[in-house]
Amino acid sequence: MKYIGVTNHLKKCTKVISIKRDHSTTTNEKLQSVVGLEVHAQLNTQSKLFSGAQNTFGGLVNNCVSLFDAAIPGTLPVLNRKCVELGILTALALSCKVNEVSSFDRKHYFYADLPAGYQITQQRAPLASDGVINFQVFTPGVHKKPYNKSSKIKQIQLEQDSGKSLHDSDLKRSLVDLNRAGAPLIELVFEPDLEDGEEAAALVKELLLIVQRLGACTGRMEEGALRVDANVSLRRYGEPLSTRTEIKNIGSVRGVAGAIRHEIERQRSVLENGGKIINETRSWDAVNKVTVAMRDKEVVQDYRYMPEPNLPPLRVNLYTREETQDVLSVPLIKDRIPELPEDSRKKLIEQFSLRPEVAIQLVNEPVLLNYFHELTLGNTRSPTKVANLLLNDLLTVLNKRKFDVEDCVITIRQIRELTDMLLNKHINLDICRKVLDELLDSANNTSPLDIITKKEWSIVTDEEEITKRCTEVIENNPKLVKQYKDGKVKVFKALLGILAKNTSNKIDMSIAAAKMEEILKKL
Amino acid sequence: MNKLTSYTIKEVHRAYRDKLLTPTSFVDLCLQKVRQTSELNAFVNITEDVAENHAIDSEKRFYIDKKIKPLDGITIAIKDNFCTKNVTTTCASEMLRNFVPTYDATVYAKLINNGACLIGKSNLDEFAMGSGTVDSIFGPTRNPWGYNGETDWRIAGGSSGGSAVAVSSGACIAAIGSDTGGSTRNPAALCGVVGIKPTYGLVSRYGLIPLVNSMDVPGILARNIDDAAEILNCIAGQDDLDSTTIKRKYQPIEIQENFNLSNLRIGIPSEYYCEGMSEEVIDTWRWVADLLENEKVLLKSVTLPHTSVSIAVYSILNQCEVASNMARYDGLEFGLRTNEDYSTEELYASSRSQGFNNVVRSRIFAGNYFLLTRNYEKYFLKALKLRRLIANDFNNVFNGDNRVDLLLTPTTLSDAPLYGDFVSKHNRDQCALQDYCTQPANMAGIPAVSIPIRLSKTTTTTEILSKLNISIDALPQKCQELLKLVACNQLEVDIDQLDPVAISLQQSLQISRKLNEEYEILKLKHKNTELQTQIDRNSKFLDNLRKELNCSRCSLASQTPNPENIQDHIKQMKQRVLSYEESCNKATMKFSKLSVPDSVLPKALQAQLSALNTLHEEVVDWRQRADDVVFTRDAREMFNRLRR
């Protein structure tokens, strides 16, 4: 009997070995990357999730801290109704099923910026589950055409944020700021439905737009208001998911794309060299563009989850529009959902006949979208031309200055005036860009016309002046005129070029061309 | 003097109105009492200044504003695990020795708003983990009953022992304790005062440093039911700061002078009659039951089947929540912080090991073990399920057709143990024994009250009573008063009259005997049927065997040879064998007579063969010799020819 046992064992071993060999030989076959996201969004509320302390970014250090936030013994959590409202609003906008009863759990770990030694979260019964986010993937320069993608949402849960630790390595000291401790977060857990960084970035961008529209979150990633964790793994097509790594706390949309792209490449090269992916937590170094293993997360934590005994289960009314102090009405919250980015894009395409990629870009920049709507009001201006002006010229000027679109100071009145001048050909595109650049520096009541007059950029449309200038050019270039007269029509353009140069581009070229031809024919 | 500090709230207020006393003078009396009884170690911190300020405020309201609050000039003690603004709140732990809260617990705030005067913060087991008030960094609290300054004395019970002793010794009119597994009722019973554990959520826990959040309730200790009810009316009600408080508006309790007991149904849970319960306690239990029965109360035996597992379940849940609640004591924001600066982890470790005693640390360890992901379902989840069953037990008893209104049980299994005996046991065993009858109420969240019934025989010596300044004449009166409350001020009771108890004992004995017998009969019946089936099975088997035997017999009979003619057969065979042997002998004889020629015999043949061989060898020899001869002749001829 024993002998047989041993041979069986041997057989097993050989099997294992052969599988391993298979594995290493097939790494050259096509590997599919799988990406799933977990997003933490800070809720945009006056006070924190369980305390009355102010929920704000950039307050004086340790100044927005209640007794509860510092885990003073004897204090108890009191759930902030507004947080639940915003959580449900977000859940509904993402077509989640809001759970009639959800509950809170304690997640334990020791860290200096976690005063209670546990975080209150919703592990077992989340606020909402089973949602979906639909979005278009289109990165100019990467994709030629936009394509549709969707990712399922496993759950949305309410939880507390932690404080912030500052490590002073010179003094060997750590300092803790509890202003953020207890700030309300929703964690959105997405299924691993994505394939690369660009899709993930597009998802995050869409989510940002949605939460901003809802007013649920400021979406300021640079302030940490929305943080992304990405789970990345590689597998052969059709096989189950394999070991994944988690990239923690990515702080920008482009960072999401970069971090995931890098991580996929890293894993691919590890596998191709016969290595093995280990389950680890990594962070994104945005400066060196690499993901790095996080040292303090090496040990697998057992969070020792336990139901939070100080908070009764959270109940909501799913069916009627009746509300009480403790029970929110979900239908009432549903009534408050504004137009979502997806609808905006559809509208732009259907009502204004914009191309899909133009619509995506416009919706991605709420400030530009607002300009667009203002400028196309009353149907006097061509939507396509307006969109091009905003997306090509204004954006170029802003990018050159490294200005955020949000910080664009140009008023509606100014841009309206400028657009009209451009569309009516009082100025050309070149001047238009210059004016935009000037407007960024000037006071917001400066008129574009004033700038043009002051800088003498206005276009000459006066026929007499144009005739005079044309005649000058003709007189000074007898050779070219002779060639033209001999039938070399091509030189007409050269003459126009000279004219433009002489007048520093300030002349209406369409009128000038007509005049020039007229004069030449008369000769 | 002593009489004054044993007045009820109503009596004190009457004295204030009659100006026999003023709040300030009464507070002074109480403080004096505290100093006189300092040996008992009931207080961790005496708040003289606070008490005097409160007394002055009360006096103003009493005599100047004429707007009297329900607790004006009433002295109270608060267990030192309730936060009090600007007054240290230590939990009797090194960890919080210097912790000064910046806020008031809701219970304390409500008491002060109702005019109460805080005399001091009372002693407890560290973080309320215990049932004796022996594990405190300030030393144990001593039970005033039977205390004569000698080395061994009785424990106060716990963990709210300090509060119970403060009330019992007359240092204050009422005190606040906390009750997680019996921490208010246990010392109340051991110190002879009333202890109330309100319904979970009736009184706010805000500011109570938690032991087990899902079971903690602030408790009330007072010398009589009226005072206890008055205090409860002042502190109960919904609190926005505690989400687990009951939302329904609180209806103040009024204790009527007369009410009909005959509508009352009282249950006696059979499971509470347990191993280790002293004869005296059982005796008293029966005595009260009879007392009530005489008042036409409908008494019936009820069952709470999960009582026996309750203490184990309680222990698991307790340790899990303790592990979680204690995680915040890391020395960073508040509390003890050692000078360890190697790393944050080292700082945590050294602060926590210095800040907590062994009991706290071991509960943290056990709790963290139970909460590990791999153990969660095995222990914590199971404990939660059992807790539900325990709560359901109570639900079943209090609802349905066969319901009762109240349960009558003892609070403790015995009278107050001696300190020496008590501390020789492990904390876990202390609690398992002391909390047996009390913790199920915490698991179910239901209210409970412990009422002193009579003095333990071991402690009611005249000597002790005189030491406590209680005259023997006053004793029956006092007990009578307490009993009046039990029977709602209706009874004139002689506490020495104990005989009717025997009847109920006999009854229950008979019932249990009968049950036992029935059970035995059932067991026998069961055995009987089992045996019967075995017998049936065996006889069937035997039948089968028999049938088989018959069958084989028949088949044998039809064969030849068969057992009947086998002998003949053998005889025939033997004869045949004999005849064969005969013919065989004949044949040998015949054979031996025949002559064989020698040449055919093997020996002759062998000799011929060897002769043949030697001839062969000779032939070879001769042939070789012939060759040699030919060769020499040739050689000679050649030689001759050459010579020529």
From TrEMBL, chain A:
Family from the record: Belongs to the GatB/GatE family. GatB subfamily.
Residue span, Asn/Gln amidotransferase domain: 370-520
Main location: mitochondrion
Protein name: Glutamyl-tRNA(Gln) amidotransferase subunit B, mitochondrial
Compartments (UniProt record): Mitochondrion
GO cellular component terms listed in the entry, alphabetical order: glutamyl-tRNA(Gln) amidotransferase complex; mitochondrion
Record function comment: Allows the formation of correctly charged Gln-tRNA(Gln) through the transamidation of misacylated Glu-tRNA(Gln) in the mitochondria. The reaction takes place in the presence of glutamine and ATP through an activated gamma-phospho-Glu-tRNA(Gln).
Automatic annotation (TrEMBL), chain B:
Role, per record: Allows the formation of correctly charged Gln-tRNA(Gln) through the transamidation of misacylated Glu-tRNA(Gln) in the mitochondria. The reaction takes place in the presence of glutamine and ATP through an activated gamma-phospho-Glu-tRNA(Gln).
One GO process term, biological-process aspect: mitochondrial translation
Every Amidase domain range: 29-458
One CC-aspect GO term: mitochondrion
GO molecular function (one): glutaminyl-tRNA synthase (glutamine-hydrolyzing) activity
Keywords noted in UniProt: ATP-binding, Ligase, Mitochondrion, Nucleotide-binding, Protein biosynthesis
Protein's name in the database: Glutamyl-tRNA(Gln) amidotransferase subunit A, mitochondrial
Gene that specifies this protein: GatA
HAMAP family for this protein: GatA (MF_00120)
Subcellular localization: Mitochondrion
Family indicated by similarity: Belongs to the amidase family. GatA subfamily.
EC number(s) from the headed UniProt entry: 6.3.5.7
A Pfam family the protein falls into: Amidase
Stored InterPro entries: Amidase, Amidase_dom, GatA
Catalytic residues identified in the record: K79, S159, S183
Subunit structure: Subunit of the heterotrimeric GatCAB amidotransferase (AdT) complex, composed of A, B and C subunits.
Primary localization class, coarse: mitochondrion
Ribonucleoprotein is among the record's keywords: no
